[in-house]
Amino acid sequence: MVGVPIPLKSIAVALTDSKEQQDTLIPDGAPPEPNAHGPFAAMRRVLPSGEVLRFLMVGGFNTAFSLGLYSGCVILFGRMSPHMAKPIIADIASIVSQPICITVAFLCYKHFVFRTKGNYLKEWLRCFAVYSVSIVAGLAILPAATKFFLIFKSLPPNAPPILAGLVNSVIIACYSYFGHKKFSFKR
Description:
Elements: H1 8-23, H2 41-46, H3 51-80, H4 86-113, H5 120-150, H6 159-184
């Protein structure tokens, strides 16, 4: 091997590849953005480069936001219609809160996770398409889970539909990553 010339280009590629792997927690092809600009640039400079890790971080925020808004709707509708059945309140709260939550999730995924440029309307509609499957599933899961949690008589009155919302969120989180990666924000 002594005396065999090694092309400088090969060394440069090897060094570049190892540096890129060090900059990302999970090598996903998304470069770090130390010079990010535009909407939410400061947050994009702070968030890790690994797409899956960013998805989990943003997903935690989206879950908290969605459950908070959904729970607020459950409490509000429960007080406005105290004699309405809890499973119906769960569905109404879901229908009212979902468009807001999906829009917030879309903006977070677009700017922080998948980091796509332009195509707002197209990606937003695709995001709604991915979530429409979970909305329909949620309309079945929420009443069923609410009825299950109603078995536990020691729970506060609004707890069963809120706990059902938590169960629904866990199921949606597992499904949504792949739907968004392969469809909503396909590169």
